[in-house]
Design a protein that fits this description.
Length: about 260
């Protein structure tokens, strides 16, 4: 039996750990930012329907991409679709549904891919914005190489990039709406269980060392790349949530009205 050093095993799991460390705060910050934006608009307008309209307009590019991703993936996988909407509506449990695409239930794999489509496409869009219009690959290389002076110089120069605020808004709208909803994830548990069973079978038949040498590094590198994009999305949300939360508190104090 081949015993691998603990450090080597951890290096192969680094991508998964980095992925989780970026995914969790992105989900939390996304929900917090949505709540703060709704609170600010609702305090200013005192109108729930108008607040829903402003909120949907603000996130319209991301909502359209989210639902269109579902639609295209369903068509590619030959799953029949129904109604398509990017207009908000209130759900019976009080939550706000920004849009939807009706699809016929298929098998676990196709349902999972259709549900994950916004996350896949959204990640690709953010990666494109970061790499090409904003040229952030140079910043990443400087940070990774420890050239922090060069890194901060590049960060300060970002607003001077052509159409910076347009690309920043697009990254914000897409990253804040690309997470699959609860209904999108309905088939994921079954898929995860099936993959887990296959991995256990592979380990039992002695394929573990081969998987660690050939599969784990590729999966780790892929997850690390996705985690970098999630990290950028987290940064975008942090930059926006702080002034939005302060505006919420200031308006609540000035008007004497607050939204829980």
């Amino acid at each position: 039996m081949i015993h691998r050093p603990w450090s080597e095993t951890m290096s192969q799991l680094f991508g998964l750990l980095w992925f989780i460390l970026m995914l969790v705060p992105l989900i939390v910050l996304q929900r917090l930012l949505h709540r703060e934006i709704q609170a600010v608009v609702l305090i200013l307008t005192r109108d729930t329907r108008f607040t829903m309209g402003i909120f949907s307009i603000l996130f319209l590019p991301g909502v359209f991409l989210h639902e269109f991703s579902h639609f295209v993936m369903a068509k590619v996988l030959r799953v029949r679709t129904g109604k398509f909407s990017i207009f908000p509506q209130s759900l019976p449990d009080g939550r706000l549904q920004l849009g939807y695409v009706e699809t016929v239930r298929a098998d676990v794999v196709r349902d999972s891919l259709i549900g994950a489509a916004p996350l896949i496409v959204g990640t690709l869009v953010i990666a494109y914005v970061a790499i090409y219009p904003l040229q952030m690959r140079v910043l990443w290389d400087a940070f990774r190489n420890g050239q922090f002076d060069l890194f901060w110089m590049g960060v300060r120069a970002l607003p001077k990039v052509g159409d910076f605020y347009l690309w920043f808004y697009l990254a914000f709208a897409v990253s804040s709406t690309m997470m699959p909803s609860e209904s999108d994830r309905h088939a994921w548990l079954e898929l995860v269980i099936a993959i887990g069973v296959l991995v256990v079978i592979a380990l039992l038949v002695g394929a573990g060392p081969w998987m660690l040498s050939n599969v784990a590094p590729r999966v780790s590198n892929f997850l690390s790349s996705v985690a970098v994009i999630f990290g950028l999305s987290v940064l975008v949300h942090i930059l926006l949530i702080l002034p939005t939360a302060l505006t919420h508190k200031l308006l609540a104090r000035l008007t004497g009205v607050d939204v829980a």
